[in-house]
Structures are given as C-alpha cells and as structure tokens.
Amino acid sequence: MSDATKDRKDVYAIGKKNPNLPFHPAVRAGDFIFVSGQVAKDADNNMVYGSIEEETKATIETIERVLAADGATLADVVRVTTYLEDTRDFGRYNKVFGELFKDATLARTTVEARAVISTKIEMDAIAYKPLKRD
Q1: Residue 64's CATH number
Q2: What per-residue confidence (pLDDT) applies to 5?
C-alpha cells in the first residue's frame, strides 16, 4: 500500500494477493470496489476451460466471490469491462451475461482482446457499496 493510502481506512485491498503479481483481486476506495481483471476459475481457484458460456459463467462467479469478500454482490456492480478473445462469441457471451446480471443497472464495454493467459474471456468490474461508517 502506498504512503498516500496506508492511513486511510476507506482504501484497502480485498482478497489475497498472488505473490507473483503486483496487484490485488480488488481494492475498496470509499464507497466503490474496483475488481481487477478476473478469469474463469472455480471456488478452489483452478482455471475453468470450456465453451464461452461456461467460461463466462465461471468468470462472473469469480467476480461474485471477490465481491462477497467485502460484503458486496453482483447487484452492486455498476460497471463491467469484458475482454473477449473472439468477437464471434459475443452473442453467446451476452446471453449468459444477461442471465447473471438480470435486471442490472450497469454500464458495460466489451472489446476483442487476447488475455495474457489462455482464456476466452476476462472481465473487470466496479461495484458501488457504501461503507458502513461510525
């Protein structure tokens, strides 16, 4: 944590940092939670490989677990950026996204980009979940 944020109680890391990577799964900054790019992983943190539908579902479930670590849910998400390896998967990804973010009020961007690791999809998110203040 930088000197500028170490004394602030409303800015902190969420989740366990991978020792090989210079960032955390998420960071709380005031009333917002910024979720780093997530990929399809199961509850034991193992990669999930499969169809775009399976990887989309598993990626959103990964985001859901990261948010839950600080008391937030998918309903708190206000912004998502999705990186698809192949835009031909857009319709199938979009269907799963719509099912899991049903009735969501959020902004979204979807772009075609290959991830650094072998995956069909990567997503980051921003959630709005006001801190409980004393």
Answers
A1: 3.30.1330.40
A2: 56
